[in-house]
Automatic annotation (TrEMBL), chain A:
Domain Protein kinase intervals: 93-379
Lineage: Bacteria, Pseudomonadati, Pseudomonadota, Gammaproteobacteria, Lysobacterales
Annotated protein name in UniProt: Serine/threonine-protein kinase
SUPFAM superfamilies (UniProt xref): Protein kinase-like (PK-like), TPR-like
Residues annotated as transmembrane: 404-425
GO molecular function: kinase activity
Species, as recorded: Tahibacter harae
InterPro entries referenced in this protein's UniProt entry, alphabetically: Kinase-like_dom_sf (IPR011009), Prot_kinase_dom (IPR000719), Protein_kinase_ATP_BS (IPR017441), Ser/Thr_kinase_AS (IPR008271), TPR-like_helical_dom_sf (IPR011990)
CDD domains with a match to the protein in the record: STKc_PknB_like
Residues that bind ATP: 124
Keywords, ordered alphabetically: ATP-binding, Kinase, Membrane, Nucleotide-binding, Transferase, Transmembrane, Transmembrane helix
TrEMBL record, chain B:
Keyword Lipid metabolism (UniProt): no
Species whose genome carries this gene: Tahibacter harae
Domain RNA polymerase sigma-70 ECF-like HTH residues, every copy: 2-179
Record flagged with keyword S-adenosyl-L-methionine: no
Family indicated by similarity: Belongs to the sigma-70 factor family. ECF subfamily.
Classification via Pfam families: Sigma70_ECF
The name this protein goes by in its record: ECF-type sigma factor
Taxonomic classification: Bacteria, Pseudomonadati, Pseudomonadota, Gammaproteobacteria, Lysobacterales
Length: 889, 189
């Protein structure tokens, strides 16, 4: 290489660097200029740029992609394959005649003689060019497994090896039969008869799958039906032997050897195969069997793009549209009666087929057994299981979409709840304690496995007939934690913590608390109170306690501050401070809470990040503090700040942004800006409906908010349709807790204000009795619901009934709460109002006011309307008594 | 002698040490390959071979980054040598049996013989590139034969991934052009 050449290369090299980055127009301009300067150089450069553009990228995939067998065979260079003329016998088999020729090679009818016994086999001799050594090696690996497949509907593998001329072959039981689709046509089978065949095929595939063999290449030509109408599945395990298995991801030749028409999307994408991969192929075969077409008309280009998201038309529809010729091609002599066949297929059978053909493997039937079972159900006219997505799919989809903290309730929602626990846990892992990343990751995996296997799977409708709710599943899973994670305290702690959070969101407060306590205890015992995991568990425990045992929650947080790091921005310290601020809000120490929140805000945002859960917690506490103290202007400001933050971090349509949009609406409502409030609540509803669907609890909740605003706007009739769905949902889904009661109160009021007083009364009475059942008769929590009935009775003129109830409420409240409690004072106001409407009860009114007016003054202040009313009533009552007195005289 | 020491000496310009280093890496890759053939196919990647050689031969913490770069460059070169030697042997072995004519209409793998020829042609082209620009050919060795990712190479060589990417395109274009644009098999299909 001389200097001139080197210099020239450097020139070309530099110019390449420059021009490679330019767009086409600039580049050709530059090349033209060069052309005038130095034509030879320009030509050289052009050639290089063309080569760059034309490059197929083979070098990018490395030598192992170009020459996988070389890399592999490095150790055995002596293993050479001699090329010799064509055979008449292969291995121990004598070739009888050629059965067929295909893309992969030839198929012969062959025999082997062992003593008196002549065995007939179908012998497939593969093309030259397939890597014999490699196939032989894999064949040896697989043979033992394949030999165990012993099923009436599977054509067993007999033998395999490499022929004398170096071509791989394998022999399997010979089946004299027709390919499935041809058989069905030639016999003119009805859809029902076709499904009956399919059930047998599913049994065969299920048998293999139970021995961990996935077929990978099911198609009609691999399923022969013999003269007795018995189907036999061929080529089990062959796809795996022949392909560069999809797992290794080095080359795509494996996937390409398959029949793309029946290959599942994950196979086309080169992703790992599973039992669900066969389910897809079975679905595709059934689809073709029923309507004569393949589920997807995919072009090669679409395959390349990985565009596998085409929606599949229902087979019955395809058949309905088919011409008589097309129908005859599928149904033979029955082709003329395609409408009848279409009717038979339409509905459940369509559903089953489409469920098997779902794009995501986890949304399909888990295996051939499940598909077969559903087909049997269809044959027997029973309810099929294909409807809902499988739980694992929901889990994944949900984790991807992150969490949203709306309501909790039904089985449907509870699926999400479990995922939430998982998501929370993963989030905690991701941001905290990075020095233990590996161990944490292992723990996270254990947690996730536990949740998916022990919890979700048991709720998977395909697994058990019973569609168990996740609450039940969670409760059941609790039992196995101690045993499963014995001697793994870190994992046990993490699992219990995830269970605690999930149960809490499912509304199961007591078991949630138990789990949280256990999580903290096991971690503290093993790793001490200052361990990061222990500290985190303490935060979870505190949060759960907040809802039920405020004093203990406070103690947990305050104690925790002793163990947390001393730095003001220690994560645990910040979490506990947040919790304490939240408690302060509950305990009506709002200003103290606001102060402490302001103090930690910079650290919270720095440590956990803007838009972190903790940051949103902080804004939430602050908003509540303002709302509790009737500072609705500030409430609105905080809601809008959080809304903007959520939109920025999660996108405008994210459920977390929706929550705050809804709160903006609520703040506006509290400001009596009802017209304005209608905008965000309606917008929330529109997005929720589009994003989550009309049936989703969050959508129903959004409906309710619109209903409430409409009520405020006195558009009572319009409000009804917004309020009723959530009440109906609560009933249907058996939602626990007291939210359903609140929803019913709105419904009852809507009925009351639209003149349906009898219905309203029935609902109010129902609320009262349910509150006593659910929350405990006479308990402090049940009393507000009794109060609503009392108000209704009073407003509709049943003063005496109302009074009896109101006096009972006050008595119960005095028992349940500390004497003279603010709530009791509020109940007493209702009684006073009731009495004030009855002029003849002035003496009784005065007696009530004597006890309670001072309390109202104390609790509500001079300017409160209740105090003003009370004083007015007192005066009026005194005047009336004086008047009556003088009249009596 | 310890590989670690060999690397240091080779880097200091000791030609004998460099030779011994290459030999020991070559031998080690070879035995790694031999051991791995019995294992799952997924493990059979040039990358894992080169990485494993690194951890087996050199005690990573004893070496500086520059030494690490040197080692991987050597290992990649050894890998290249190994692959090319093997291709040669196969071709030599095949000659007796006559030329291999295969129909390539199958969607399955290309015939090994053709592939071996392609690899030799690539090796030749790479030599020409080396003469013009040793950096580029070293990059090809590390990326193509060594199976290292560009990001890894960037870290090793302390260069930006962006500029490496441009170099890679250039080297690729050069080889592609040298091989007449057709000699390398297109992606299957």
């Amino acid at each position: 290489m001389n200097e001139a050449e080197l210099a020239r290369w450097r020139r070309v090299s530099d110019l390449f660097d420059e021009l490679a980055e330019l767009d086409a127009a600039e580049r050709s301009a530059r090349l033209e200029a060069l052309q005038r300067e130095d034509a030879a150089l320009a030509r050289e450069l052009r050639a290089l740029l063309d080569a760059d553009a034309a490059d197929c990228g083979v070098l990018d995939r490395g030598v192992q992609a170009l020459a996988p067998t070389i890399v592999e065979a490095l150790a055995q260079p002596e293993a050479e394959i001699p090329d010799t003329p064509a055979p008449v016998a292969i291995g121990r088999f004598r070739l009888v005649r050629l059965l067929g020729r295909g893309g992969m090679g030839e198929v012969y009818l062959a025999e082997s003689t062992q003593g008196d016994f002549v065995q007939q086999v179908a012998l497939k001799l593969l093309k030259r060019g397939m890597d014999s050594d490699e196939i032989l090696r894999r064949f040896v690996q697989e043979r033992r497994i394949l030999a165990q497949l012993n099923h009436a509907h599977i054509a067993g593998l007999v033998d395999g090896g490499v022929s004398a001329e170096g071509r791989p072959y394998y022999a399997m039981e010979y089946v004299a039969g027709e390919p499935l689709t041809e058989y069905a046509r030639s016999r003119g089978l009805t859809p029902r008869e076709r499904v009956q065949l399919m059930v047998l095929i599913c049994d065969a595939v299920a048998h293999a799958q139970s021995r961990l063999v996935v077929h990978r290449d099911l198609k009609p030509s691999n399923i022969l039906v013999d003269g007795d109408g018995q189907p036999r599945v061929l080529d089990f395990g062959i796809a795996k032997i022949l392909s560069d298995s999809a797992e290794d991801g080095l080359t795509r030749t494996g996937a390409r050897a398959l029949s793309p028409a029946y290959a599942a999307p994950e196979q086309i994408r080169g992703e790992p195969v599973s039992t669900a991969t066969d389910v897809y192929a079975l679905g595709a075969v059934l689809y073709e069997l029923l309507c004569g077409r393949l589920p997807h008309r995919r072009s090669a280009a679409a395959l390349e793009d990985g565009d596998t998201d085409t929606t599949v038309e229902r087979p019955s529809q395809v058949l309905r549209r088919a011409s008589v010729e097309e129908a005859t091609a599928t149904y033979g002599r029955r082709g003329g009666d395609r409408d009848r066949a279409a009717r038979e297929i339409g509905g459940d059978l369509d559903t089953i087929v489409l469920a098997a053909l779902k794009r995501e493997p986890e949304r399909r039937y888990v295996n051939a057994n499940a598909l077969g079972a559903d087909l049997r159900r269809w044959l027997e006219g029973r309810t099929i299981s294909a409807r809902a997505d499988t739980a694992t799919y929901r889990l994944r989809r949900f984790v991807r979409r992150h969490r949203f903290g709306v309501l909790a309730g039904s089985a449907m929602l509870l699926f999400l709840v479990v995922s939430l626990g998982l998501a929370l846990w993963q989030a905690a892992i991701a941001r905290a304690e990075r020095n233990r990343a590996t161990e944490q990751a292992a723990v996270a995996t254990a947690v996730s496995n536990f949740l998916t296997e022990d919890v979700i799977r048991s709720a998977n409708p395909y697994r058990s007939k019973l569609d168990m709710s996740v609450t039940q599943a969670l409760m059941q899973a609790r039992g196995s934690v101690a045993q499963r994670f014995a001697a793994q305290p870190r994992t046990e702690g993490a699992v219990r913590r995830a269970l605690a959070e999930s149960l809490a969101l499912a509304g199961e407060r007591a078991p949630a608390l138990e789990e949280a306590r256990a999580a903290h205890a096991v971690l503290a015992a093993r790793f001490g109170e200052r361990d990061a995991d222990t500290l985190l568990s303490r935060a979870v425990l505190g949060r759960l306690l907040q809802a039920v045992e405020e004093n203990e929650a406070r103690r947990v947080y305050e104690e925790g501050l002793n163990y947390a790091g001393a730095a003001p921005d220690d994560p645990a310290r910040l979490r506990y401070t947040l919790g304490l601020a939240s408690l302060d809000v509950e305990l009506r120490k709002e200003d103290q809470a606001l102060q402490s929140l302001a103090a930690i805000e910079p650290a919270v945002r720095r440590i956990f990040g803007d838009g972190s859960d903790e940051h949103f917690d902080l804004l939430n506490h602050r908003m509540r503090a303002y709302a509790n103290t009737d500072r609705y202007e500030q409430t609105l400001v905080v809601a809008r700040e959080a809304l903007q933050l959520a939109r920025q971090h999660f996108g405008a349509d994210d459920p977390r942004a929706l929550e705050w949009l809804q709160r903006e609406g609520i703040a506006l409502r509290l400001l009596d800006r009802h017209e304005e409030a209608l905008v965000p609540v309606q917008k929330t509803l529109a997005i929720a409906e589009a994003r989550l669907g009309p049936e989703h609890p969050a959508t129903l909740y959004a409906h309710l908010q619109v209903g409430i605003v409409l009520m405020e706007l006195k558009r009572y009739e319009e409000a009804g349709p917004h309020i009723d769905p959530i009440v109906e949902y609560d009933r249907r889904a058996k939602v626990s807790g007291d939210n359903p009661l609140t929803h019913k109160v709105y419904q009852a009021r809507q009925r009351q204000y639209t003149g349906r007083v009898d219905e309203a009364r029935r609902i109010f009475e129902e609320i009262n009795s349910q509150a006593r059942t659910v929350l405990g008769a006479g308990s402090a929590q049940a009393l507000p619901y009794a109060q609503t009935l009392g108000m209704f009775l009073m407003q509709t003129g049943s003063h005496a009934e109302a009074e009896t109830l109101q006096r009972k409420i006050i008595a119960d409240s005095e028992k349940a709460l500390t004497p003279g409690h603010v709530n009791t004072a509020k109940y007493a106001f209702d009684l006073a109002e009731n009495l004030s409407a009855q002029p003849d009860r002035a003496a009784d009114l005065l007696a009530v006011l004597e006890t309670w007016l001072p309390k109202w003054e104390q609790f509500f202040g001079d300017k409160d309307s209740r105090v003003i009313d009370g004083r007015k009533w007192q005066q009026e009552a005194k005047q009336r008594l004086a008047l009556d007195g003088s009249a009596a005289k | 002698m310890e590989v670690t020491e060999l690397i240091v000496q080779a880097r200091a310009g000791d030609a004998a040490a460099a030779g011994r280093l290459f030999e020991s890496v070559y031998a080690d890759l070879r035995s790694l390959a031999a051991r791995q053939v019995g294992r799952m196919r997924a493990d059979m990647r040039a990358t894992s071979l080169v990485h494993e050689a690194w951890f087996r031969l050199a005690r990573p913490d004893a070496l500086q980054l520059k030494d690490r770069e040197h080692f991987f460059a050597v290992a990649a070169r050894a890998m290249r040598q190994l692959v090319i030697d093997h291709a040669r042997q196969r071709i030599a072995g095949k000659r007796g049996g006559g030329a291999v004519a295969t129909e390539l209409d199958s969607q399955l793998a290309h015939d090994g013989g053709e592939r071996d020829q392609e690899l030799l042609a690539l090796d030749q082209a790479l030599r020409r590139l080396e003469a013009l620009d040793a950096h580029l050919s070293a990059l090809v060795e590390m990326r193509f034969f060594g199976g290292l990712e560009l990001s890894e190479i960037a870290t090793l060589c302390n260069r930006s991934e962006r500029s490496l990417k441009r170099d890679w395109r250039k080297a690729r274009a050069f080889l592609h052009q040298q091989l007449g644009g057709e000699a390398l098999p297109a992606d299957s299909d």
